[in-house]
Amino acid sequence: MHTPGRSSVSFLVNTDKFYSIGIQIELKKISFILIDLLGRIKKERTILNLEYNNNTFSQILSSLFNEFFNEIDKEIKDKILGIRISFPGIVDRKKLKILDGINLNLKNIDLNDIFKKYDLNVYLENDANACIYSEKILGKAQKDENFVVISIGSGIGAGVYINSHLHHGNNNLCGEFGHISIDYSGKKCNCGNRGCWELYVSEIATEEELNRVSTKELSFIFDKEQNKEFVEKYINFFSIGLSNILLTFDINNIIISGNLAKYIEKYQQDILKNIQKNIFFKNYPLNILCSNLNERSSILGAALIPISDFFNLVNSD
């Protein structure tokens, strides 16, 4: 159960009293949103087809954010609680530092200099952990004390909410299930391992399939009638990864978020049947849910974190 925070009346009625900004960093893409206290998006922008590296990333992010922030009305700027950045990789939340973004080729980037001139509280969070906030506050986990969010993008991450707390781990590595090997002699991963789960179920796998069948339509490659072999392999690989998560945390609720969630949703029962073939899960009361927030789960979660901290909505270790 979350601990009640400041006046719930202020939170529910005076929706223009405070605002928050979310930033989502992805492969070749950066998005920005401004939300009010109810999580309603007041302003948003996404910049596609970006090319950046360790040398250029800070300058690109600084320039894009400055453009976004300058377009916000002054009366709203004065009511912004903070900025939260969602990043698909390993981060140091306290030092505001990107430690390793394996799939984005970014490493050891300090973000303090970019945001210090705005005189706002700035937070940095792993993208899957950010999803915990959106699912707990706005999504399908509002009544859950134990659940895991699987965030599928250029890689795969898991946000872990156990005993009413978001769990980061001692070294901020909790939830890096995309790099658990499901085939020790399989494909080589950027992390140095072989057969990592994300190579078979993330956008890396779908991009390979799109190229193979010469289409740009995800709906086609996830259509079992037209692309049976890929779909059956995908379901099998996805089920293996979920089984590992269940054996680790023994939870009953898994939420799938990200760009691929809406395509996976129609195969929930197939995934569940695959998992239940394992003797440990014969009568396992598992709920596999797909986020109704889809690709916005992470950036909404990022923007909700300053609000959550202010009102004590989600507990974090």
TrEMBL record:
It comes from the Bacteria. Belongs to the ROK (NagC/XylR) family. The lineage of its organism: Bacteria, Fusobacteriati, Fusobacteriota, Fusobacteriia, Fusobacteriales. InterPro entries: ATPase_NBD (IPR043129), ROK (IPR000600), ROK_cs (IPR049874). Gene3D superfamilies: 3.30.420.40. This is ROK family protein.
